[in-house]
UniProtKB/TrEMBL annotation:
It comes from Lithohypha guttulata. This is Dienelactone hydrolase domain-containing protein. GO terms for molecular function: hydrolase activity. InterPro entries: AB_hydrolase_fold, Dienelactn_hydro. Residues 33-269 form the Dienelactone hydrolase domain. It holds the Pfam family DLH. The lineage of its organism: Eukaryota, Fungi, Dikarya, Ascomycota, Pezizomycotina.
Amino acid sequence: MSTNTGMGACCMSGTIHSHAEPTGTTTTIGDLPTYVAEPESKDHSKTIVFLTDIFGWEFRNVRLLADLYAKQGFYVLVPDILSSDPIDPSFLQNVEPKLKDKQTAGLIDTVKNTALVGATLGAWLPKHREAVTLPIIEKYMDTVRGQQGVKKIGVVGFCFGGRYAILMAHGKADAAYACHPSLVGIPGDFDNVTKPLSLAVGTEDSLLDMKSVDQIKDILEKKSNVPTEVVVYKDQIHGFALRGDYSSDEDKKAQDDALKQGVTWFNQHLS
């Protein structure tokens, strides 16, 4: 039986980082506006494409993270896969509280947040269904593959983009890393994985429970000819790898560890 994990308030949870300013540039690649973070060497041989969450390619956090990957020697591209139609980042502040606050939230606040999320995502998701989004990403991947100097392509996906990172591991990418993916189909999205795939998930992710994670592990462990891994982060909610709370030492460490997970994975599989 195939199951799909959905989207909810935790897709809109997290913190906007203000500790730094993005240092990359913007351009157009193919048809898509793209944020570009180059390594100091200017080498494009190990290219990574970021597939964003619902907050899109202009979201500060995703650009700062792209800069960090670039400092590790990767040429990083963050395309506008949402066709200039992201969810407003203001939802990060008022829809979903941090885990410690969520645990003490009252019924009225919970109902209010659920209604707000439903109204927002209910209108947004059909415009960005797979039939619309997947061709955009596949065309972009083909364009990047043809760029001068590009030898191997990795994909990092977050939340909404996490599922598409998994789909790129069906053959379009040379390696993929999916952070707290949403809307995944189990087993279908994982049965067809043929390229190295790493996953980062939190134990408190309400969109991908531990039973589903165990199912995913079982599927991937049977792929003896394909490198895979699933790393579980204790007490982390949906979005932690991109939108973690830097005022919390535990959450900051989890986000930093998720970055190390991705860097290590791509150093192994894009070389």
